[in-house]
Every structure is written in C-alpha cells, then in structure tokens.
Amino acid sequence: MLNLPKNVWILTACLALFMSLSVFMLFVGGIIGSVLAPSKSLSTLPVATIVVGTAVSIIPAIRLMSIFGRKKVFLGTCLYTILLIGLCIFSIINESFFLFSFASFCLGGNVAVMQQFRFAAIESVELEQRPLATAIVLLGGLISAYLGTEIATLGKDYFETDFAGSFLILASLFVIAFILMCFFKPAEKFKEQINKSTRPLRNIIKQGSFIVAVCAATTGYVVMSFVMTATPVSMHVMDGFSLDHTKFVLQSHVIAMFLPSLFTAYIVKYLGLTRMMILGILLLFVSIFTAYLSHSLNNYWFSLVLLGLGWNFLFIGGTNLLPLSYNENEKFKVQSINDFLVFGFQAFAALSAGWVVFTFSWEVTLLSVLPLLSFQLFLLLWWLKKYN
What we know:
By secondary structure, the chain is mainly α. The chain is globular and about 55 Å long. The protein starts with 5 loop residues before the first helix and ends with a helix. It is 80% helix and 0% strand. Helix 3 (70-93) packs antiparallel against helix 7 (164-181). It has two domains: 1-191, Up-down Bundle (Growth Hormone, Chain: A), CATH 1.20.1250.20; 195-388, Growth Hormone, Chain: A (Up-down Bundle).
C-alpha cells in the first residue's frame, strides 16, 4: 500500500476536500433553502440544482481535460469553486434564494470534475495496482463524511448570518486542495483515446450489459438522492431534531456509502456481480420499510445506513458491469453518456424531493420509490437468469 505513487495519495486527499462540498451542500442546502425559499416546497432546490449542474457539466469537463489535461482542469476547478463559495455567502447574506440556487447549480461543475479523480488514479499506477488505487482514493469519501458536516456546524454561528462562516471554512479547503494539486503529475493517456470509436453509440446502448449497468447505477443514485435530500428537511425542519442529530445521521449515511468499497472485490468474488446488485436492491427495500415504521432517531439512522449500503452495491455493480458494453477506445464516450444519464435522473429526484415531502409527507416520499426498486429487481433477476 505504501508503494503506491504519490499521485494516488494526492488524489485521495483532494477527493476528501472536493467531496466535502457535496456533503456540505446536501446537509445545509435544504435547511438554508427552507429559510430563504418563497415556498417550503422549493426548499431542496439548491440541493437539486447542484445535481443538475453536475449532469450538465460531465461531458464539458471531460472535453476540457482532453484539451488542457487533467491537472490544469483540477487546479482551475479549485479557483472556480472558491469564487462560487463567495457567491453563496453573498446570496445568503442578502437573502437571495434564487442566487443561492444558481451558485449551487454552478458548483455542479466541481462535482463533475471530482468524478474524474478515480480515473486519474487508475492512470497513475500499473495494471495490477488499479484495484488498490481505486480503494485508497475512495477513502476520501469517508473523510468527507466527517469534514462536510463538521464544518457546517462549526462555522454556523461565526457571523450574524447563519452558515456564512461555514462557507468561509469550506473555501479554505479548496485553497488546500489547490496547493496539493500543484504536486500532482498526470499521466496523459486521455487525449489519445477519446472519440476514436468506430461503432455508433446507438449500437452500444442497445446492449443488455449497458442497459442493466446504467439502470442499476441510476436506480441507486435516484433512490439514494431522493430519500437523502428529503431527510434533513424531514428530520430538522419538520420533526424538530437538532442539527447535531441530523448531522450524525448523514455522516453515518455517507460512511456507509463508501466503506464497503474497500471490500467490494471480496463481496463480488463470493456472491457474483449480479447477486451483489440484487442484495443492494433488497437493502434499499429494508431501508424504506425501516424509515416508514417510525420517525425516531434510530429509524432515521438505520434507514440511512442501509440506504448507503444499497447505493454502494448498485453503483459499484453498475460501474463494473459497464465496461462489458464497450471497447477500450470507446470508454470515455460511453462513460460520459452513463454519467450524464445517472446524474440527470438524480437531479430530477433531488429536485422533486422537497416538493413531495412538504406537499404530501415523509411516508409518501418513501413509498414513491417502491415501483422503481421493483422494476430494477425484476431487471436484475432477468439478467441473472439469462447470463449467470
């Protein structure tokens, strides 16, 4: 493990800092929105817009890297993010909900660039070290679970305007990320392989492996984002749980999302890829059932932990299944389409979560995902029967 190139450790640290932004916005976006929004049903709009921004930015982010290289885009994104955090501070001080939502939308570009860290790590090591490098980089997600929520509560009361100090601390993380990224030395293999595919995209997306992979990742992200986005609103705004209790639940959720990645290879070896994804669906069913039973802190916590685990098995399963649908020189095109679809549907889920939970109830929010989970379970059982 210690023999991994320093690039991997730099990317791990930077992923933790970058992803802290996502965790931070998921934690406070709906809370700030509930204060600033002209209607309570729009409370989660800032959370949704960052996901929309991610979906819109995926393809441009990859294109920019193909032109300027990964390092320059990583460094530029740090500066870009600091400026947008400043815009967030300005908007909450001036109580401008739509400006805050716009700034959140633009921050989606940060998340789109962050998605490329795992590929940058793979490019930095030899073939036999790639699984380990991926696992190490994913540790950044665990760190972000603590950082993103802690800085939100730490700086909440620094200034007269709630959370202005939190955003200021968040900006300092990207100053650190910029300094770290200066020591990153990319392996430029990206330019040579992009857009050299000879197969039409329509032929690729008709394959069963592509359909099952994209549906699995999309279902995992949609259900996770829909429930997770509604959780801080339901817990803190509607049920009156403290910010510390809400923070604890979300921290546990994010840890559950990433911790299993360190053991995924063993789970796949024991169960197989498709069975692991089916297990993920079943965990999501139990998560929804647990949350439906009670509004207690324990139920919120256990449900969100299972939600994270279920997402991990579906997303990792879909990610590993996707390469069966493309050749080496097609991977960037297919990965771009995959990410665009996943984050596009996730954006819709995050956008609708606030409206559903305020207009109907927490229980209706939970029940509304059951048809999607049932469809995905049927699709995976069909795939298991046909190809396993």
